[in-house]
Amino acid sequence: MSIRFLNKQPDVSQFSDEELVSRFAETQQQTYFEELYRRYIHLAYGVCLKLMKNEDDSRDVVSDVFKILFTKLPTADVKSFKAYLYTVSRNECIAKLRQKKSDMEKLAKYNHLENSPDDFMENDGFAALFNTNPSMEQEVERAVAELGDEQQTCVRMFFYDDKSYREIATETGYTEKQVKSYLQNGKRNLRILLEKEMRKHTA
Amino acid sequence: MDGNLRQQIFRPTACISHEELRQYLSGHMSREGQRRVENHLLDCPLCSDAVEGCEESGNHLTDDLEDFEAFSKKLSMPSHTAKVRQLQPMGYLRQAVAIAAVLVVGAVAYFSFFNKSLDGPALYAKHYMPYQNDVPVAMRHANAPDVDPNFAQAITAYSVGNFTQASMLFERALLQQPNHEATLFFAGLSNLEIGNVDKAKTYLGQVANGKGIYAKKAGWYLVMCDLKAGNKAAAAAKLDKIIQTSEIMVNEAKSLRDDM
């Protein structure tokens, strides 16, 4: 007769990515990796699709990406899972394109990517610091006014008037891609300007 | 204007779920959902590229992606749900044929694997991981004590991916402080990023020969320099040394060595 323990499975959907990585590394239990796979497979596939421009190749690469993660996660020093996934996905696409000589033209366009940083904007820490300082509200307005014309227009329409990329594009004549790019750069510049201000306040 | 604008702009947002991606691409998403997604896309290159990839390819169908059950069959790890099948009795002849077939398939797989070993740049592409700026905040100020003012600007340029400008500024800082470890290290990385491998090797070599906090990390990036330059033999020699003596990057080194 054997003794059976009730094995209560943890609710992995409540875990952060980094908790899942760390538990997977500790226990090697597939459940934790499966949750990461479920959360990100569609995004990794989209990234591959952007670079490979081909659905079948993208499916192959995304499968390879998760195989690499499965092997490497237990020992890799992963501070941000999504940044790690993004880097591995891009590098795998570039490696695959290098193997296919017919794709040299695509590869030439992406060579700069393997060296470029992730550019994830981590808002958690910044927002917490920022929100403890109510006087920064006026600084935001001042910083927005310092942005270039295109960035300022898009930032005001998006954050002040709650307009979508498409609506901004229709009103300004920019393409949706341009709108997104102006917003991304505008937001990054706002953060740099506000960080400078905060430094002055804390100096 | 919203009185709480600062909270709106810098509010952390989660990545886009599969369902949200589907709704956003098909245009069937609530206005509130669309705002959340579009705000998140500004911060997250993973989601941003994924949306662009699907939009550009006109492929809005990600429903038929392999589910985890199918994917896990490709993994070498035994599934906890896998059942052990009872072996059926088999004649000696059938067993011998089966063993021979396994040996032939194994030999073909072995040789095709080794014939396809990657070259230096391909290995670089696979194993290179950009080094994140980890310089203490106190050193990033333009007026930080004991640090050349160019260093603060250089590290900002490095953080936003402007490596050409970063390398130029780091080199200016080195004119004033030629032995400053962090400056040498990041000058090496910036040059590696923009393809100036010889310069990168010079700076990183200086760091690796020292005893500072970046010495061992510089050793790893010297391997990357060799790979980028296509010199696999030099990279292999350095890797072996890392595996034998280093306290960090050992697993990465082993994994790369296996691929070589």
From the structure above, extract its key features.
heterodimer; A: 203 residues; mainly alpha; Arc Repressor Mutant, subunit A; 2 domains; 10 helices; globular; disordered N terminus; B: 260 residues; Serine Threonine Protein Phosphatase 5, Tetratricopeptide repeat; 3 domains; flat
How would you characterize the overall build of this protein?
The complex is a heterodimer of chains A (203) and B (260). Chain A is an all-alpha fold. Chain A has two domains: 12-115, Rna Polymerase Sigma Factor, Chain: A; 123-202, Arc Repressor Mutant, subunit A (Orthogonal Bundle), CATH 1.10.10.10. Chain A contains ten helices and no strands. The model of chain A is unreliable at 1-7 (pLDDT under 50). With 260 residues, chain B is mainly α. Chain B has three domains: 8-80, no CATH class; 86-116; 126-259, Tetratricopeptide repeat domain (Serine Threonine Protein Phosphatase 5, Tetratricopeptide repeat), CATH 1.25.40. Chain B is 63% helix and 0% strand. Chain B starts with a helix and ends with a helix. At the A-B interface, helix 2, helix 3, helix 4, helix 6 and helix 7 of A face helix 1, helix 3, helix 4, helix 5 and helix 7 of B.
CATH-derived architecture of the largest domain in chain A? Orthogonal Bundle
Q: Given this structure, which CATH class of the largest domain in chain B is correct? A: Mainly Alpha
Total helical elements of chain A: 10
The helix/strand order of chain B is HHHHHHHHHHHHHH
Tell me the Rg of chain A in angstroms.
22 Å
Q: How many E strands of chain A?
A: 0
β-strand percent of chain A reads under 5%
The amount of helix of chain B comes to 55-70%
CATH class designation of the largest domain in chain A = Mainly Alpha
Please give the largest β-sheet of chain B.
none
Instruction: Briefly note the CATH topology name of the largest domain in chain B.
Output: Serine Threonine Protein Phosphatase 5, Tetratricopeptide repeat
Q: What class, by secondary structure content of chain B?
A: mainly alpha
Cα-to-Cα separation, first versus last residue of chain A: 71 Å
Helix/strand/pairing class of chain A, anyone? Answer: mainly alpha
Global morphology of chain A: globular
